[in-house]
Design brief:
The complex is a heterotrimer. Chain A is of the alpha/beta class. Helices cover 35% and strands 20% of the residues of chain A. Chain A has a single domain, classed as 3-Layer(aba) Sandwich (Glutaredoxin), CATH 3.40.30. Chain A contains 5 helices and 7 strands. The termini of chain B are far apart. Classes of the chains: A alpha/beta, B alpha+beta, C alpha+beta. Chains in contact: A-B, A-C, B-C. At the A-B interface, loops of A face helix 3 of B.
């Protein structure tokens, strides 16, 4: 019995680790889910005279993708977003977050632009209103302007198929 | 020495070691655990007075002021629902900025002023300390519940 | 093309690792010599292919190939080449590849230096190391591939974390990993012994030099990490009880217990099961350290938050490796419980006490590191366990261990007489206690912590001298030749213990007698600290390779005589915009003068907050740490490990033995 003690102690430890691992901060239950998307009005990248506001999207199910040109994981999800844009499965708005280098316009011209509109959140304030902890993050917003889901990290094809697409269907996109 | 005695010696030694260690650890835990509170919890009076704890949130824009000695700084930490005044004497960390996440450790005075002994903001540019992020999320959750 | 070659080499290495793991172990169980013979070539081949993969990644970094995700995220075109190379292991993926490379290195070393060992033992040891390799390589390939492409390529990289752009960081991780991974050899020997059922003194003798070398390198790694934190973080501290530091300190504590317990097993045949358990523990803690630092469980770095697969893989891997070996231990260990005899006051008993204290210290660090995680997992709120806890637990636990350190090497195996010991040590005890009390009184008044630290440091140093005197008493010839005739094992032990004495002295003095000052300074302002006068002569802009710096000039003088000029910097890195404090230090053997820039207080950046430290004896800490490592290496090179002995019988009880 005594010889089994180390093994038992270790098993308890693994249990805690497993719990800790699948806990914070991976899926912080966002307090914004089920709440109206915070309103804002921001100028657009490439056309500072025009502006975008979430109210413009009333009546549509849409994605708010928070990205930045300096963010490498955003490039990983870029091909997926391009494919979505091509198939016109859902309108995507790309919030350009803290782009201090002002590179967004050039980058989108080079690699392709999957976004319906690219509001320019230079100060990062809108990001804070949405509880953004880092890029990329994506919000699913329904016809009534309520946030229905938040995904932290890059959207892969898997994430799209297993997480986002079912949600969109449920919302009647 | 008989092997039974040796076994006994081993057991006694081990028990004594474990006992002393456990006593030390429990004692140290009692006095040195640092709990974390959000400004909202502090406002509700959940935080202890006379014992050190941590607070987290954003440094309110335009709230940073320095005294003439250049070392004592005053700023406001907010979780977007409630805010609290913090005073800190010393050099602020490199990544301390207004509008950014921060965690401060110190004691709460009876006047509601939080005297920090340590200010942490050591993550990279676009990342918020998890404690600060969770303070803001909790506060906003509470706020939304109230509005409904 | 180069990254694809690297990727392919990793796949080949994984296949070789599986071969190396499976065939030799089956061969050893069945007594099949052909299968056992696969072990050596497979291990060496695996090392070559991991080496190719590593070279490919390093090449991509050095040539700034931003079409590789890992390079784009961790390098920068203006980054100096030496840091480009170091950036190879600056990221999660790269450091895992470095881990695999070093494991390959150790396995190859075992395959080369094991000619005198029985074939089945070698086959099992290499096979077990192959299993660990296979785990790490599949982790790399499935969740952390360093060769992933980024298309289209990024125009510019995001730069290596500025904290890591320091000479200390170039060597710190490889050293640390040499130590961590080196414990895999002791681990593999222990498991091989459990599998074969031959847990004897020969086994302890084989695994001892490997363990000592790994422990020495881990010591160097930890000392370098501490030195880096002191130089680079700008806070003047050298140990923060940060989870990352604790992750490397726990295997070190277990490893220290292990090298002492191995000594008893080799010399006396006692503590066998205990030694095996320690070998498993030391390597398990190395794996746990990797898990804690690399999975983001403790300090949640956003990059990991997006990838739970990594954490899950490491956890599963830990469960299999550690759980499996503990199960094997539970199943096999009772069958070979034989031990030597010893009395309550003998070297064995003292080493056992040392083991108990070291493990209690390790347990307290483990608890303090994991407690916040446990509380969080149980939903009992967020808490943090800081340096006050660790200091409150660690110092009282280590004090008796340091005292015993003076007695242990002078006690005889099997049994010593207490009155005899008191007679041999009474002067050392009196001198150390008296100095411990008097020295603080002359400096700054009575200080119990300083008394304990100084007394223990002098106590250890004196007992080392007594050890030498007693060893030399019965030898003939000139002092130098008598000294050089002492076995290296003895020299190594004494050197390492003396290193501890220096380190304890350094820690005690710097913790109790350092002075510091944060002061607002305009151009031409003076301030005083510890008898030195510091004059702030202003700031100038400087352009570094990948950063802009505000470089301050602080002139230091004593009694009107100019001594030296220090140039602390505040850097802003171009790619990340991250500010960094670069301290300026004037070191010597008895004190460091340390100046760091705080922040500018006016718009023109002429008035600054400046932080000044006077740190007496701090360098004794690093010197002591290095001495510890040199002692270990010296002991591992002892002649008796190099003699080709196939299977020596365990030392019969009562035979006089030499040194530990």
């Amino acid at each position: 019995m005594k010889r089994w003690l180390p093994l038992i102690l270790f098993a308890v430890l693994v249990g805690f680790f497993a719990k800790g691992l699948f806990l914070n901060p991976r899926e912080v239950p966002s307090p914004f889910i089920g709440k109206p998307a915070p309103a804002f009005t921001l100028p657009l990248v490439g056309n500072a005279n025009a502006s975008f506001s979430p109210a413009d999207m009333k009546g549509k199910v849409w994605l708010l993708n928070v990205w930045a040109p300096w963010c490498v994981s955003c490039r990983e999800e870029h091909p997926v977003l391009m494919a979505l844009a091509r198939s016109q499965s859902v309108p995507i708005v790309g919030l350009n977050w803290k782009d201090k280098g002002r590179e967004a316009e050039q980058l989108l011209a080079q690699t392709g632009d999957p976004f319906l509109a690219v509001p320019d959140d230079l100060s990062g304030k809108v990001g804070i209103d949405y509880g953004v902890t880092g890029t990329p993050e994506t919000y699913v917003i329904d016809k009534a302007g309520i946030i229905r889901m938040k995904h932290i990290g890059a959207i892969s094809e898997e994430v799209w198929k297993e997480k986002i697409e079912p949600k969109l269907q449920e919302l009647g996109a | 020495m008989k092997s039974r005695h040796k076994k006994l010696l081993v057991i006694v030694l081990a028990l004594a070691g474990i006992g002393i260690a456990a006593a030390l650890i429990l004692n140290a835990f009692q006095s040195n655990l640092v709990f974390f509170f959000t400004p909202t919890q502090v406002d509700k009076g959940e935080a202890p007075t006379g014992r050190a704890f941590r607070i987290g949130g954003l440094v309110e824009k335009g709230s940073l002021k320095r005294e003439a000695d250049g070392l004592t700084s005053h700023f406001v930490v907010t979780d977007t629902a409630k805010s609290m005044n913090v005073v800190y004497k010393g050099i602020l960390p490199d990544l301390f900025k207004e509008g950014k996440g921060v965690v401060a450790e110190g004691k709460l005075g009876s006047d509601g002023l939080f005297t920090a002994t340590q200010v942490l903001a050591k993550h990279d540019e676009n990342y918020m300390p998890p404690e600060a992020a969770s303070a803001i999320e909790q506060a906003q959750k509470a706020q939304k519940t109230l509005q409904q | 093309m180069i990254p694809e070659i690297g990727n392919f080499a990793l796949i080949v290495a994984l296949l070789l690792a599986l071969t190396q793991a499976i065939l030799p172990i089956i061969g050893a169980q069945r007594g099949n010599l052909t299968l056992m013979a696969v072990a050596r070539p497979a291990a060496q081949g695996q090392f070559v292919f991991v080496g190719i993969a590593f070279a490919c990644l390093a090449y991509s970094f050095i040539t700034n190939d931003f079409s590789v995700v890992n390079v784009a995220q961790n390098s920068f075109s203006q980054l100096p080449k030496i840091y480009c190379f170091a950036a190879t292991w600056g990221s999660h993926e790269g450091s895992m590849l470095l881990w695999a490379l070093i494991l390959g290195f150790w396995t190859t070393a075992v395959s080369v230096f094991s000619r005198h060992l029985p074939d089945d033992m070698v086959a099992r040891v290499i096979g077990i190391m192959g299993l660990v390799s296979a785990g790490f390589l599949s982790f790399l390939l499935t969740t952390s591939n360093p060769f992933l492409r980024l298309l289209p390529a990024a125009a510019e990289g995001r730069d290596l974390n500025p904290l890591l752009q320091d000479p200390g960081m170039v060597f710190h991780p490889p050293m640390l990993y040499m130590g961590y991974v080196g414990f895999s050899v002791a681990f593999a020997f222990a498991l091989a012994a459990l599998l074969s059922g031959r847990l004897d003194a020969a086994w302890a003798r084989w695994s001892r030099p490997w363990t000592t070398v790994a422990w020495s390198l881990l010591s160097v790694g930890i000392v370098m990490g501490s030195w880096w934190a002191y130089n680079e973080l700008g806070w003047g501290g050298w140990w923060f009880w940060d989870p990352t530091e604790n992750a490397s300190f726990m295997p070190w504590l277990a490893g220290t217990a292990l090298i002492h317990s191995l000594a008893v097993t080799e010399k006396r045949g006692a503590f066998k099961a205990w030694t095996v358990l320690l070998a498993i523990t030391a390597f398990s803690l190395s794996l746990l350290g990797t898990f804690l630092v690399r999975s983001g469980v403790l300090s949640s770095v956003h990059a990991f938050a997006t990838d739970p697969a990594r954490g899950a893989f490491i956890l599963g891997f830990l469960a299999v490796v550690i759980g499996g070996s503990l199960a094997l231990f539970a199943w096999r260990a009772p069958k070979m419980l034989t031990g030597g005899r010893f009395t309550w006051f003998s070297r064995e008993a003292l080493l056992l006490a040392n083991n108990v204290v070291l493990l209690a210290a390790m347990g307290s660090v483990l608890l303090g590191t994991l407690y916040p995680l446990l509380m969080d997992a149980l939903g009992m709120g967020k808490i943090s366990v800081g340096p006050p806890y660790f200091n409150a637990v660690f110092v009282p636990l280590m004090a008796p261990a340091l005292f015993l350190m003076g007695v242990g090497p002078l006690a005889r195996w099997n049994g010593s007489s207490l009155p005899d010991m008191v007679a041999r040590l009474k002067w050392a005890l009196a001198i150390s206690v008296a100095t411990g009390i008097l020295l603080p009184l002359t400096l700054n008044g009575f200080n119990p912590w300083a008394t304990i630290g100084i007394a223990l440091s002098i106590w250890i140093a004196l007992t080392v001298l007594i050890g030498f005197r007693e060893r030399l008493k019965y030898t003939q010839g000139g002092l130098l030749s008598r000294l050089s005739n002492l076995p290296r094992g003895f020299w190594g032990m004494q050197l390492a213990h003396f290193g501890i004495a220096l380190g304890v002295a350094g820690i005690t003095v710097v913790a109790n007698y350092q002075t510091e000052r944060d002061v607002r300074m305009n151009v031409g302002d003076h301030t005083q600290l510890a008898g030195y006068t510091f004059t702030f002569q202003g700031i100038k802009e400087r352009q570094g390779p990948n950063y802009r710096a505000a470089e301050g000039t602080v002139e230091v003088s004593k009694e009107g005589k100019k001594l030296f000029v220090l140039n602390p910097e505040k850097r802003i890195y171009n790619a990340s915009g991250m500010p960094m404090t670069e301290a300026a230090i004037d070191p010597n053997l008895f004190r460091d003068v340390y100046v760091a820039l705080g922040e500018p207080l006016d718009d023109k950046a002429e008035i600054w907050v400046v932080r000044i430290f006077y740190k007496p004896f701090i360098n004794w800490l690093w010197i002591g740490g290095l001495m510890l490592a040199v002692g270990g290496l010296l002991a591992a090179s002892d002649r008796r490990y190099r003699i080709g002995v196939k299977a020596p019988a365990p030392a019969p009880a009562g035979v006089a033995t030499q040194g530990v």
